[in-house]
Amino acid sequence: MAARFMPALWRHGCCNVQMRASSVAIVLLDLTLTPNRSLDRRHARWLIGAVGAIFFLGGLRFLALGAWPILPFMAADVALLWWAFRASNAAGRGHERVVLDADALTLHRVSAQGATRRFGFEPLWTRVQVEETPLGDAHVFLAARGRRVRVGSFLSAPERREVGEAISAALARYRDSGSPYAGGNPSTSSIV
């Protein structure tokens, strides 16, 4: 039975017990990955207000000197700054959630627009691939049965490496002791 996605029960840690539809599932890994944002909405408003105040005072000086054509460009600068922070905050609403339980390793990806995609993997056959680039960047993929899905593309390279290590360690714990198929045949499980 596939586990239901229940946002109210998000947890972070090694072993959390969560109530599912009619059963209890042991969660070995539950990571919520969110993009980095330099300023939240409140601080962005303060910054835009401060820049607007400075530009207003500078605009008064230009107006006193008779250089009034500069004022619309200064207003456009403040408007573009507001638009850039608004776009950055909108893009920051996307996130990913990686869950490893007894049934599957699942990646829930929510875009900035709210569209949700779900990728399910059989934990016994899933590999974590960390690809290093010549410039020092790293890309993390979950791979199983010829399918690869990138994880945490919005994170920095050190954060991606850390996420890759955390998922690899959880999969190793699953294979060593947590597998419900220990001694059995994993081919009978369903892949989402």
CATH class of the largest domain: Mainly Beta
User: Largest sheet at a glance?
Assistant: 5 strands, antiparallel
Estimated structural class: alpha+beta
CATH architecture of the largest domain: Roll
* Integer-rounded radius of gyration: 24 Å
Distance between the termini: 10 Å
**Strand element count:** 8
Q: What is the 3D shape? A: elongated
Number of continuous helical runs? 3
Mind explaining what this structure looks like?
This protein has 2 domains: 12-37 and 92-177, Roll (PH-domain like), CATH 2.30.29; 41-91. Helices cover 35% and strands 27% of the residues. The chain has helices at 41-64, 70-91, 157-178, and strands at residues 16-19, 24-33, 95-101, 105-110, 116-121, 127-132, 138-144, 147-151. Strand 1 and strand 2 (24-33) form a beta hairpin. Mean pLDDT is 81; it is low at 1-23 and 182-192.
Which key features would you list for this structure?
192 residues, alpha+beta, PH-domain like, 2 domains, 5-stranded antiparallel beta sheet, 3-stranded antiparallel beta sheet, 3 helices, elongated, disordered N terminus, disordered C terminus
What's the topology here?
Layout: E1 16-19, E2 24-33, H1 41-64, H2 70-91, E3 95-101, E4 105-110, E5 116-121, E6 127-132, E7 138-144, E8 147-151, H3 157-178
Short structural description:
By secondary structure, this protein is of the alpha+beta class. Helices cover 35% and strands 27% of the residues.
